[in-house]
Amino acid sequence: MADRERIYLSSPHMSGLEQQYITEAFDSNWVAPLGKNVDSFEEEIASYVGSAGAVALSSGTAAIHLALILLNVGKDDIVFCSSLTFIASANPILYQSAIPVFIDSEPDSWNMSPEALEQALKEYAAKGRKPKAVVIVNLYGQSADYDRLKAICDAYEVPIVEDAAESLGATYKQQISGTLGKFGVFSFNGNKIITTSGGGMLVSEDLSLLEKARFYATQARDQAKHYQHSQLGYNYRLSNILAGIGRGQLQILNERIVQKRNIFDLYQNELSTIQSIQFMPETSFGKATRWLTTAWIDPEQSSVSVTDIITHLETYNIESRPVWKPLHLQPLFQDCAYYTHHEQDVSARLFNHGICLPSDTNMSTPQQAFIIDQLKDIF
To answer: What is the full DSSP assignment across 12-75?
Structure first.
C-alpha cells in the first residue's frame, strides 16, 4: 500500500506568515548569520516564555553545549542527565570531556525521577564528586516536576540546564517551560512543534552569561579591527533567513499546541476501551503541549508488541516509532553510571513497551481516524 499518502510522525507545518520575514532578509541582502530577524526572534522568544533574554543558535544541541561551557564544565567533571531522551541531551557532556551519569524517569510524568536524582546526588557528594550541572529533559512536550527537582539540586548547589527542546509552550505551575533552570534550551528542528528547519535557542535570566554565549557562538572573536581570537569559539549562530521562519512560526505556536492536544484527545477518547493502551499521563502540576502522542502497551494485558504496531502501520505508509531508547542502554554510554527509580528501571520499561503515534498537525481528521481504525484492528 505504498501508494497511500505518507502520514508522518511530526512534519514541518508552515503557516504562510514565514515568507514575509524571509523576503525581508532577501531584500536587505542579509542572508548570513545575524541580522534583524535573529535579533527580533530572540526578543520574541524571550517575551513569549518570560525570560530576561535569549540567544538564537544553530541547534538545541549547541544551546546545551554553550550552557555547559558557561557552567565551567570541563574534563572529567560529572554531569547528571535524564536517561529517557534523545542523545543530543548528553552528547555535549562528551564534547567537554566530562562524564555523564544518567537518571531514571518516574512513571507519573515519564521525566526525571526526583528519588533517583536525590540518591545520585547523595552518593556523588559523599565521594567529593558533586556534579557541575544536571540536564533535566522535558519529555514529549511535558515539564518535569521542577519544585521537587530544583529543591534537591539547590540543596547541593548544583545548577539545572532545562532541556525544553520538546516542550516549548508547555507550562509548570503557570510558568513557561524553559525558564525553570539556570539555562533553558529550545529546539526548532524540523519535527518540533515550531521549526526553523534547524535551529535552537538558549534562554536565561543571567544576561551577562547570555552575552558570553553570543561571544562563544560567533567563534569567540575578540573586539579588534582585525580577526583576533584568545579563546576557543564555535560557529553556532542562527541564520537570518531561518530566524525569519521562526518568527512566522512563533505567531501560530499557541494554535499548534491546541492542534497537538486535540490529536491526543482523539486518540485517547477513541482507544480508551483498549485496556492495554496506557497513554503518557498529564501531570497535575502543568499543561503539556502533547508534541507527540505517546503510549505504553501493557504486556500483561496484550500480546501485541510495539514492533507489531509499527510494522502494521508502516504497511499503510504511516510513520510511528518506539519512544527514545534510554541513554544508559546506548553503546556509547555503556560504562556510565545509572540511577533507577525505586530500583525499577522505568526508562527501560517505557522504551520496551512505548510507542510514539503520528501527531502531525498536517494530518487530517479522516487520516487520524484511519490510523485509529488500524490500531483497533491490531488489538
So the answer is: ----S-HHHHHHHHHHTT--SBSSHHHHHHHHHHHHHHT-SEEEEES-HHHHHHHHHHHTT--T
